[in-house]
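A.,

Following up on our hallway conversation. Structure tokens first:
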């Protein structure tokens, strides 16, 4: 659907599952928080990088599991602590490099293998005891981890643990670190190195010649006769006598 105001009202009513065209206009304005319908549609397209309103709306239906805009508004307000879809898109764009908020939301769905964004972001919130909205949590993980792409951060975490979802990867990480909060884990890593923790994990895999962290860390437990990733790090850091932690790993 084009942002042109001459677009057939029937198409918009069909898209929004409404019988009244005037209500459709009101829904779009309320959805974006903008008082002008044309500007509202143009803002949606600008924020999403799409050229078709139908593409945006149908994608939102798919990733929320809803078929009505008013229900989607309720969901985004509850999950993301924003008032409008415009605020949501702009918050996501401020975090990501791609400036494609719909793809970002779809990626979170894929990485959690959940059926709706409400379920998916509940998994994200469970990574920490921090009381904050999920977008703030994601932004903070990206900033503190040193990884420049939060989606890639989670993909890499799934890869090095040889699991299928963020939560399955997280179970591995909590088991080997004996910590249950992602920010505590990141801060404990910083005691040893300023390097992105994904790089540290990949280094461990290369050194141990393994393909997943569970197997790699078990080798380290056997070698150092301790249990716990940070306990292993303490021994490496103490006895290799070098200030650079990654070099210490290679010397083990």
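Then the amino acids I'd put at each of the 252 positions:
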């Amino acid at each position: 659907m084009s942002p042109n105001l001459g677009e057939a009202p029937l198409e918009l009513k069909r898209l929004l599952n409404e019988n009244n065209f005037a209500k459709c206009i009101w829904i779009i304005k309320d959805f974006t928080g903008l008082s002008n319908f044309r500007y509202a549609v143009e803002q949606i397209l600008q924020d999403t990088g799409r050229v078709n309103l139908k593409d945006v709306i149908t994608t939102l239906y798919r990733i929320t599991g809803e078929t009505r805009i008013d229900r989607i508004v309720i969901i985004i307000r509850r999950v993301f602590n924003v008032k409008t879809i415009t605020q949501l898109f702009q918050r996501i764009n401020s975090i990501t490099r791609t400036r494609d908020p719909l793809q970002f939301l779809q990626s979170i769905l894929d990485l959690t293998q959940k059926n709706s964004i409400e379920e998916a972001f509940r998994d994200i919130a469970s990574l920490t005891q921090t009381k904050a909205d999920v977008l703030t949590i994601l932004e903070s993980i990206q900033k503190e981890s040193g990884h420049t792409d939060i989606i890639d951060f989670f993909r890499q975490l799934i890869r090095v643990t040889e699991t299928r979802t963020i939560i399955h990867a997280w179970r591995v990480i909590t088991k080997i670190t004996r910590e249950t909060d992602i920010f505590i884990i990141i801060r404990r890593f910083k005691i040893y190195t300023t390097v992105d923790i994904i790089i540290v994990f990949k280094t461990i895999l290369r050194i141990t010649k393994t393909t997943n962290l569970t197997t790699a860390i078990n080798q380290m437990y056997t070698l150092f006769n301790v249990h716990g990733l940070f306990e292993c790090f303490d021994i490496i850091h103490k006895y290799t006598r070098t200030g650079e932690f990654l070099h210490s790993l290679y010397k083990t």
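Residues 1-125 form one domain. Curious whether your intuition agrees with the design.

B.
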